[in-house]
What we know:
Shape of chain A: rod-shaped
Shape of chain B: globular
Order of helices and strands of chain A: HH
Radius of gyration of chain A: 64 Å
Number of strands of chain A: 0
Helix content of chain B: 55-70%
Largest interface: A-B, 36 and 55 residues
Structural class of chain B: mainly alpha
Oligomer: heterodimer
Distance between the termini of chain A: 183 Å
Low-confidence stretches of chain B: 19-34
Low-confidence stretches of chain A: none
Radius of gyration of chain B: 25 Å
Order of helices and strands of chain B: HHEEEEEEEHHHHHHH
Strand content of chain A: under 5%
Number of strands of chain B: 7
Number of helices of chain A: 2
Strand content of chain B: 5-15%
Distance between the termini of chain B: 64 Å
Amino acid sequence: MDLIIPSAGLIFWQLIGFLALLFILIKFAWKPILASLAEREASIDSALKSAEQARNEMSNLKAENEKLLQEARLERDVILSKAHEASLKMIEEAKKESSKQGALLIEAAKAVIETEKKAALTEVKNQVALLTLEVTEKLLRKKLGDDKAQVELVDQFIKDLKLN
Amino acid sequence: MTPKFLLLSLLFSVVLLSFSAGAFAAVSESEEGKEDPTGFIMHHIKDSHEWHLVTIGHTHITLALPVITYSSDRGLEFYKSSDFQNHETHKFGKDYAHNGIYIDDHDHLGRVDGGSILDFSITKNVVMLFLVIAFVLYITLSAARHYQKNGAVSPEGVASFVEPIVIFVRDEIAHKSIGPKYKKFVPYLLTLFFFIWSGNLLGLLPGAANLTGNIAVTFTLAILTFVIVNVNGNKDYWKHVFATPGVPGALLPIMVLVEFIGLFTKPFALMVRLFVAITAGHIVILSFIALVFIFESYSIGILSTIMVTLINVIELLVATIQAYVFTLFSAMYIGSAVAEHHHDDHH
């Protein structure tokens, strides 16, 4: 066989063999392999994309959370300050109330004391009057034994009356 | 690493020397007992009707191959190669004609009566062709089965070997050279790459046939590329050939001639490049082996074995590069045929 002259027999077999190989491979090898590769590449692409999307969503969520937290913090501050104010007010009111109550109590006590005092004075006066009457009676019983004394006494009384 | 490598080469060369000295002598005894390295090399490079495996002493161990002939008056005929040779020396020749048909000592088929006869024999290269096809089928179908079984998952086993090559051919060769319409041509380019690559590599095995270094094989592959290019040629492609834009009217006949010849030189270059690269590699390796038998000296034996080993390593590279280059140039020619030109239209 010649080196540089193609032999018809080998061309024939080569053509048949290669074409058969080509068609078998197209149908049973390249089609499934290329399809799987394309599918895998597509799925990798979509996975990357969805990962990117998820990352974006995450950052959005984070920002939102941050915002919510900020709001909550502000609200807390407001509530706290309000509560503080309210407590101050309540204390103030309580103080006012208690002083008022105290004043009232003192007033009432004073009134009671006054009445008690008056009652006591009246009692004392009555007692004194009674004692005076008794003393007078005893004196009268003793002194009015004689007329002179009676006259003297009446004089005395008159004097006193006049002086008054 | 290197000392180990040298030691291995030494051992290998000793084995080779002790074992094959007789073998070579027997093969090349043809011209009255004189050494004939050219015959020995050419015998390996060229196609043959039988597959010579090894010669021990004077015993040739060969694989007899089917001989299929066709002639208009006798029709299809089937023989085996051993029908046409001397059973002792395994020599072909007119003296050993069988049934009016003979194979001469240049492995040409002929008829004793001088009539024309076509040779469709399953020669050594045809057997090699079937082996390469079987090999390619095995690895690619195994890979395909992996995807069919598991769906679009990451590759495993043979698939992880095939997949990077498929992706490389698809993205780096087909897509880059052809452009947006590349998808249609990927299967052809893949088959081309796997066939040539496997052929190149298997051809490097000791005793294997020089399939991809055979001109008939590269011719057929180049013709297929030529057909695909010209069948898919669009308007712009043909306009470039027969009415090259931007060429003055007077020069047009010359340009058309040049462009027309260019249609055929492209596949011709494809054919010659692969044939020469692979055949030359085989010749260099065989020449270094032949040196051993010419000089019959141990030192030359060791040296040539080291050289053969190194050249074999280079040949592994060449096998891949040539497969890549053939595929790449096919893709580029296809690309030039299907490309859309948006410029020069107003000329």
